[in-house]
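fold description:
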Amino acid sequence: MNDSTDQRRSSGPVPVTKAVVPAAGLGTRFLPATKATPKEMLPIVDKPAIQYVVEEAVAARLNDVLMITGRSKRSIEDHFDRAYELEEALEAKGDDARLRSVRESSDLAQVHYVRQGEPRGLGHAVLCAEAHVGDNPFAVLLGDDLIESADLLRRMIEVRERRGGSVVALMEVEPEQVSLYGCAGIEPTDEDDVVTVTDLVEKPAPDQAPSRWAIIGRYVCDPTIFPVLHETPPGRGGEIQLTDALLELTRRKPEDGGTVYGVLFRGRRYDTGNKADYIRTVVDFACRRPDLAEELLPWLRDFVGCGGHGVS
């Protein structure tokens, strides 16, 4: 730990102002669509999934957003940049509504980019943020998980600023699903929705999981995670796992940047990481849109009534 970190700790909690969004994955589960289009740019109705993630960060007052990207991800940068020719065309047509929607993404936040040279896991992607984040605590938001509101992230930041350490979002899953997640061993605290994490296992077999409380894609990390990640060997899948680094922090004292807390989440979460859940997400978002629900809902009722064989 360097001198500046010691000074920050002694002067009180450092506010969380930075968000890191890993977006370097290959998106192989959505091939061939993701051969030339980043999976993060697949639309949820008419807005790419990654924009919902940035909006969530901004709603939690995280206006400094770092994207961890890779090859073939240039369209993400273009989306959050100005599109002057398109804006001029819409302005000339007097199409103010679409002009606002186009400008919205470029006005959301200060968005920065760094490339992950090769896909070596989530832990390595987070490590790519070290130079930008420095000695500050920071949030990590995964684009596969869309959270209905920023309440969860705001709560996690509040827990971090009051208690220190790192904070993960936990959601209870069915026993047959634990092998899809990192699962946590937990102990209660004096707050109903906050627990102390005592163990973390990446994608365990159901009979080896420490609990059914699984980490979903929201983290608030102490900057001590960076030197730990530097020393973290490849784990499951031959990748550097963020879960393994967080496990090491559970074993450290608070004054050394240790302790990991969990915020128990019981709200609405959308997993867009596989095809079926992605489709469910699109349908759910569309059905709650006033401009689409009136036409879409009756069609869906007829479709279901026909046994899913289509309607005229």
Remarks:
- The mean pLDDT is 90.
- Residues 92 and 173 are 51 Å apart (CA to CA).
- The two ends are 66 Å apart (CA to CA).
- DSSP finds twelve helices and 13 strands in the chain.
